[in-house]
Task: structure prediction
Amino acid sequence: MKMAIAWGCLVPSRRSLLGYEAATRKVLQHLGVNVIDVPNETCCAPFWMQSLDQTTSLALASRNLAKAEEMGLDMLTPCSGCFHSYKRVNHTIEKYPGVHERINSILRPAGLRYNGTVQAFHLVDFLYNQIGLDVIKSKMVKDFEGLEIGLRYGCHMLKPHEILNIEYSERPTFADEILEGLGLTSKQYTGRHRCCGGLLRGTNDDLADEVLKNRLEDAKEADLDALVTVCSLCHIQHDMGQRIIKNKYGIDDLNIPVLHYPQLLALAFGFSPKEIGLQQHTASTASFVSKLKEGATAQGGGK
Amino acid sequence: MGQTDEVRTQRDDIPIRDEDVERTFKYEVAHQVGGEGLLRCLKCGACSGGCPVGAVTDYRPRKVLGNVLLGLKDLVLSSDDIWMCAACFTCEERCVQEVNFTDIVTILRNMAVKQGHAARGYLEMARTVVAYGRVVPKTFAVDKMRANLELPPLQDPAMEELTKIIQASGFDKILALYKGGDKTQ
Result:
């Protein structure tokens, strides 16, 4: 299987997010998916850019889609913000032909055109629907029996479901099914489906802190071995943001490892914590890694 | 931008007088892409009930919708409220009338931006993208971190294409509104 892949701005350049890219590349290769980076990818112009000018945002997102269309490939992305942008382009040009014309008139001077034929997939949805749990389980060499994680679906992978078309966002289960297939217990806890405030970071930091504080208190209360995220902003908030919340609100005993979704798959496939960047997260992942060593049972002889 | 510990009273907004009302405002919003749902709003408040920002402040999406429907154009477009939405889309997901509040807030923000009320943080991100093609510019440090994880070098963003897109969409003119003296809140 061959897919174009857009990594977004944050994933391939932030210290704590590089592990997201590393794990995604390793997991996809291990599963036999061939990914081609979108050539000279530019910013997908997500919601914050839409806020400034919707038409510009749609045209910028269409640029990367046009490149995938030229290659004749569908688009995969691990970033929920990018996923949302690409899905929104396809939805908008289908519903409003006038907007489609306008976008192409904007792309024309740059020598580009987007016909709307590229399907966009979020990595986690792709793993569940295009690869499937059985194939993933067949590649497992370790399982995580006894470990409890809190999975955050985030907002932009699921909402609004009419546009994104994965699963209704109030009680989603697909991403939990894969993790439970790896032997993890995915704990239901208060606030796991609530917004992290990530899009307010940089424009209204006090508000972003206030929302995040509630989310981290929820996670702390749930007594998890780790949080797992599928969204760049969720990770930045929960991982890097922990230090801010600790200092600002004087919460001392806050140290929750925050992992990227495919990092768990990579670990199950036998990759080492180091090659998927677990040492680069802001909140230490050491407690989770040490539990892994104790708890992991080799079923296929290791790697 | 409103601080979260500030209590903002509603007394400044009422009573509403004829001279504050622009009756065609709701149609102006409803006729834009994504704004169609506005006129279906029942003001039931499901949007406010699920709002994560509303959980920690007195921000209420229903109040924004109410003010738009009333025609309080100047108040809405110059208010901090329209910049407090975190775009979680919970209101949009739960709205029985398919009002699509997040799309409406986008329309209101776009209108406010043209009047000089853009949020400073988003403007800065836009300037970074226009200059470097990405929200996080590619630097030597990034290349080094990538090499340590055996990731391929980051490609240079297609700046020529991006610049032409920005010019063709007129976004360069929008940014030019904010040159020099910052008009932001």
Summary: Residues 171 and 246 of chain A are 30 Å apart (CA to CA). Confidence is low (pLDDT under 50) at residues 295-303 of chain A.
